[in-house]
From TrEMBL:
Belongs to the major facilitator superfamily. Sugar transporter (TC 2.A.1.1) family. The chain crosses the membrane at residues 105-123, 143-165, 177-195, 201-222, 234-256, 262-283, 345-369, 381-398, 410-429, 441-465, 477-497, 503-524. This is Major facilitator superfamily (MFS) profile domain-containing protein. GO terms for molecular function: carbohydrate:proton symporter activity. Residues 108-531 form the Major facilitator superfamily (MFS) profile domain. NCBIfam families: SP (TIGR00879).
Length: 546
């Protein structure tokens, strides 16, 4: 117990305050704070942590240990009090601190999304440029070498996604972004200036490594710096900017018809956002969660102040300390991901990306031009633009719903819509009664599928994974899951046409519909809802459930 002198309405009263250990917090295992209660009005303000501002209440009682912290608390029907006592910041429950953020994470999310734009751009740029670069490099009659130009990027992305997690854990998120700009810029330069196929392949490989690293790093960084209440919306922006990157590659290819050498400019353009990414990350704050995990507490507080404002420092630091109480474990190794402790949640992350790819998104995009031609839309550019616009529109809707409807419900809705769309596509190709309407129905099925994909299956996995993974495995687990994405993407691209030739596109579409239905069942039984919960709250909930 602590006896405090309390001033209330000009009168001094002696108040006995419950000391730490007298009761237990129901929220977490952290010791409770010292509290001062007086009848009357609510007591409200921020608290000091390592030099943070004193905001209206001073507490000090008896001999004060070093690092004393001043605090204000919220509660119903309590008067404004002035007292002296010592309270550690980690002892103040999160629900007691309601300081409004005065900072903004949006500029830093925007910088990170340059990586997402480059992701989409490098994937899409080769589609329009391949015919023209093949003529310039003398491989227009060699389908194998053309295939290498395309698939080398996927191979590089696979390697980059696995590497990105280890780099992010070792050097931090922002430094890894800066390192990532090197293969992105060098790869673009080599591709733009290539005069032989070997240089082009090396350039595409480096660009692939760069987008592989950014594919894991962008959602990781955004999730770790985003406030809980808008983390879903900001996390889905990653997918939106990937779509914008793909559309930018499509627009960049428009001058090709009149200028066949334009393909070099198309590759060279991507050097600019690569440099901007490095420069932007040089002035962006590091992830406070990574800094805290490394024991760099003062730097973590500086980052929090820059991201959310000084009044949020104590609240966020408390949450981080509460999540790490009783744990001094170092970053996990790769083998730890397969341990009994983590395997269940890691398998959920890997399954999300497997379902995403096996649900047929690449097949639908690949066949979209032929589908649109059957409906009388002869322009490949128009077909690609319509598919891209549907993707962007669906992702914007998902962004607005992510923190309202939740991740799990959007995933179930998305895969259900994709299953129905695949069934419609399959029937439009085989059911004779629908033959007169097969073209319009196929277009409707394609657009509905892309919209459904953009509502959940596209943006949610990259957002959900950093949320459900514990802090010590987060970077590597995200990298492993993204690695599954690139591996499955590579093999689907390798064998898809062979499977279509053997079984027919209608049967393949039915197979994709079955995968989507299976995904709905799996998500309903295994995926947890994360909306409105901090990363530390999610980690504690999953740890107690395991």
């Amino acid at each position: 117990m602590i006896r405090c002198v309390v001033k209330c309405g000009g009168q001094q009263q002696h108040v006995v305050v419950a000391a730490r250990g007298d009761r237990k917090s129901p929220a977490i295992a952290a010791p409770p704070p010292a509290t001062v209660r007086m009848p009357g009005r609510v007591l409200c303000c921020g608290m000091r942590s390592r030099g943070a501002d004193l905001a209206g209440v001073e507490m000090a009682a008896g001999p004060q240990p070093q690092g004393g912290v001043s605090g204000l608390f919220r509660g119903p029907r309590y008067s404004r009090v002035r007292a002296t006592a010592t309270v550690d910041p980690e002892d103040i429950p999160l629900e007691k601190v309601q300081a409004k953020s005065s900072g903004s994470v949006l500029p830093y999310v925007g910088v990170a999304c340059l990586g997402a734009i480059l992701f989409g751009y490098h994937l899409g740029v080769v589609n329009g440029a391949l015919e023209y670069l093949a003529k310039d490099l003398g491989i227009d009659e060699n389908a194998v070498l053309q295939g290498w130009v395309v698939s080398t990027t996927l191979a590089g992305a696979t390697a980059g996604s696995f590497t990105g997690g280890a780099l992010a854990d070792k050097f931090g998120r922002t430094r890894t972004f800066i390192l990532d700009a090197i293969p992105l810029a060098v790869g673009a330069f080599l591709s733009a200036t290539a005069h032989d196929v070997r240089t082009m392949i090396i350039g595409r490989l480096l660009a692939g490594i760069g987008i592989g690293i950014s594919s894991a790093l962008v959602p990781l960084y955004i999730s770790e710096i985003s406030p809980t209440e808008i983390r879903g919306a900001l996390g889905s922006v990653n997918q939106l900017f990937i779509c914008i990157g793909i559309l930018a590659a499509l627009v960049a290819g428009l001058p090709l018809a009149g200028n066949p050498a334009w393909w070099r400019t198309m590759f060279g353009i991507s050097i600019v956002p690569s440099i901007l990414l490095a420069l932007g990350m040089a002035v962006s704050p590091e992830s406070p969660r990574w800094l805290f995990q490394q024991g760099k507490l003062s730097q973590a507080e500086t980052a929090i102040k820059k991201l959310y404002g000084r009044e949020k420092v104590a609240e966020v630091m408390y949450d981080l300390k509460a999540a790490s109480q009783g744990s001094s474990e170092p970053d996990a190794g790769w083998l730890d991901l397969f341990s009994k402790r983590y395997w269940k949640v890691v398998s959920v992350g890997a399954a999300m990306f497997l379902f995403q790819q096996l649900a047929g998104i690449n097949a639908v995009v690949y066949y979209s031009t032929s589908v649109f031609r059957s409906a009388g839309i002869a322009s490949d550019v128009a077909a690609s633009a319509l598919v891209g616009a549907a993707n962007v529109f669906g992702t914007m809707i998902a962004s607005s719903l992510m923190d309202k409807q939740g991740r799990k419900s959007l995933l179930i809705t998305s895969f259900s819509g994709m299953a129905a769309s695949m069934l419609l596509l399959s029937l439009s190709f085989t059911w004779k009664a629908l033959a007169p309407y097969s073209g319009p129905l196929a277009v409707a099925g394609t657009v509905l599928y892309v919209l459904s994909f953009a509502l959940g299956a596209g943006p949610v996995p990259a957002l959900l994974l950093p949320e459900i993974f514990a802090s010590r495995i987060r970077a590597k687990a995200v990298a492993l899951s993204l690695g599954m994405h690139w591996v499955s993407n590579f093999f689907i691209g390798l064998y898809f046409l062979s499977v279509v030739n053997k079984f027919g596109i209608s049967t393949v579409y039915l197979g994709f519909a079955s995968v989507c239905a299976l995904a709905v069942v799996y998500i309903a039984g295994n995926v947890v809802e994360t909306k409105g919960r901090s990363l530390e709250e999610i980690e504690r909930a999953l740890s107690s459930a395991s």
